[in-house]
Amino acid sequence: MRILLLTGKGGVGKSTVAAGTAALAAAAGHRTLVLSTDAAHSLADAFGVEVGPEPTEVGERLFVQQVDAQLRFQQSWGEVQRYLLSVLDTVGVDRLAAEELTVLPGAEEVLALLELRLQVLSGEWDVVVVDCAPTAETLRLLALPEALGWYMQRVLPTQARVVKALKPVLTRAAGVPMPGGSVFEAVERLHAELDEVRSLLQGPDASVRLVLTPEAVVAAEARRSWTTLSLYGYRVDGVVANRVFPPADGDDWRAGWVAAQARVLADVEESFVGLPVWRSEYRAAEPVGVDALRTLAADVYGGSDPLAAPVGEGPFLVTRTGGGAVLRLRLPLVTRAEVDLARRHDELVVTVGSYRRLLTLPAGLARLDVAGARVEEGELQVRFHEARPAHARGESA
Ligand SMILES: Nc1ncnc2c1ncn2[C@@H]1O[C@H](COP(=O)(O)OP(=O)(O)OP(=O)(O)O)[C@@H](O)[C@H]1O
Ligand SMILES: [Mg+2]
Question: Considering the entire predicted model, what is its pTM?
Fold first, then answer.
């Protein structure tokens, strides 16, 4: 089982590369599903066929699915979400929790993720390729399972307890609506399912590929995505530079573009050290249909195996030292100044730019104090040592 996610700035060719990669996998004998979490639904356009909300066969061993997440949401989670929001609002939650809630993406994307889980668990596929929404949305989407999982763990049980303990008071004084047992059951199931999705996406069989076009602005965004995806514990295993002009004797306009692209591509090769940078030529026509897509993907990957197992450590790595431990989190391309770190009880709050990750520390680390931190060679290293008395904890590092 292999899960591949394709992401990148709007219009760079995510759907085309996702569809092509899937067509190539199917041609190699794998039962393949390519699934879109994007409301724009351009997969149907890429294959040049009608595609429904269930997997639709478009070729031998090749299926396409465009999730109608909005509909699913209306059916299953609308009520639960309204309830949760009303409770949070009425009871008043921890400031950090409230902040985290504001970065939660729309429920549509949650549902798209749940569909991925269902398809993976169905056992029907050897390969699932996910055509993700443009970068910013995708990042939030990918971060979601963890953020929501955190929310479920920290806020909900508390709310459940609070609601239970204060039930008489709350109903009278604050007017908090009482949840039916089904609300909590539904919420717990959602939490468990999202947790599974997160494990799948951060697991050893999943990886993310960044699609870009050789333009400075697009490449800059891809670099930020690499950092952010790493922050959230996803493995990025390659870059696809799409719409590369083939060199040819031509007019100055074309020669100018070829030279400009070559400069950006050289930069890209330099930035994404350790990752393959595959190239895809700007074709004379839009690659539409299974054959054209497969041909494009075959050119992109050349001799390399598009389904090769991703290498790398995964979310974070803890090594024991004499009196403590070091936690390492891969954060490519960031400097110390861009990283903010705070300790909250058994969690580390790592912020890079406008992105934040809550790392729940393993029990062995949770009882230690943060002794210091640094960023070195694309890696955040946090040193822990034996805890001082409880009152000394909770400081920022
Ligand atoms: N290498 C290529 N050569 C020629 N045309 C291409 C190439 N790659 C993509 N295209 C065309 O560019 C357009 C945009 O591609 P695509 O829909 O794959 O981008 P996207 O990143 O998925 O866009 P969106 O952000 O809107 O989802 C499509 O019309 C597609 O056929
Ligand atoms: Mg698309």
Answer: 0.80
